[in-house]
Amino acid sequence: MKIQSTTQGDVNILELSGELDYHSSPELREKLGELTGKQASKILMNLSGVDYMDSSGIATFVEAFQKTKRYQGRLVLAELTGTVRGVFEIAKLDSIFEIAPTVAEAMTRLGTKA
Amino acid sequence: MNESEQPIIEVKELVKRFGDRAVLDGINVNIPRGKITVIMGGSGCGKTTFLRHLIGLYQPTSGDILVDGVNIAGLKEKEMNEVRRKFGMLFQGSALFNSMTVGENVAVPLREHTDLSPEIIRIIVRVKLELVGLTGFEDFMPHQISGGMKKRVALARAIALDPKIVFYDEPGAGLDPITASMIDRLILDLSKKLNITSVVVTHEMKSAFRIADQVIILHKGKVLQVGTAEEIQNSKNSYVQQFIQGESEGVIPFKQTSEAYLKGLLST
Predict the structure, then answer these.
(1) Average pLDDT over residues B25-49
(2) Cα(B110)–Cα(B90) distance, rounded to whole angstroms?
(3) Domains along chain B with CATH numbers
């Protein structure tokens, strides 16, 4: 899995591609941990390139979600592939997370223009 | 044939002999991907031995077993462990660790086979327990829950590592009919939702016909018939009919002939 980290205004963007599974999710956890550790107020995850995600992937997002909630930060997930959306739905977490259809929509929701 | 149409397991000419007795005698069968296959047959038909071959616990005397195209017959233990990562297994007696909580039991494969942190494992455990309808039971001990709940915990543990294939050994054994039917519903539910291939060994007829996309009937180490639940129920094969009707008299002898008895007795 590849993780590309950029910023746009006050939004921290992580763009993932490849398979998010129990081999690769610790790396994502570390990146998210850096952002939540400095209480990044806006985190956008671009998941358009993620073709497979397992339970460790979803657990990593749940943990990051819990942490951002604690300091009133926001975590928005964008451009979920069908497979990834399915995993959220199975775990009944699709209604808990803020999910945007596109990166542009996510940026608008976060109050920043794409 | 694209990947979704390719059988996830292909068994070719599988033979297993214990001494000069062939317990599996030339099995040829495919397990379709993403479907529920039920293996049925009377006691001693070879279904447990067959299951043990599919999960790599036994090595065949001859023949091939291809899992996702990889022949597991003759595979070394280390390579077999790689293949087993695709497997989840629900054991007949649930096989929970009595000294561990429900949550710790579900966490065992995650702790054993991954480097995930305890915090991430805790979240996965909660998601899996929700999938089997046991949210809130994480801190219970196995002795504090019912037999049906233990089965569900064992199922949560079986799917902890997101397996492609889950094997069930007599999932309804020792459960009352209502609880057994709930377990069936869960098997159906998880198979469809998670797109898991399920292989169920059972002799519970009602359960088999309730959940099966494909039924394999074994008899004397051979495949007697393969078909949908409906095809098996309407089978013209007298062995199959005797088996599904549960009749003691018929073409399957209630006991061996006196000649076979005497031959067996005098040959030892």
Answers:
(1) 91
(2) 16
(3) 3-236 (3.40.50.300), 237-268 (no CATH)
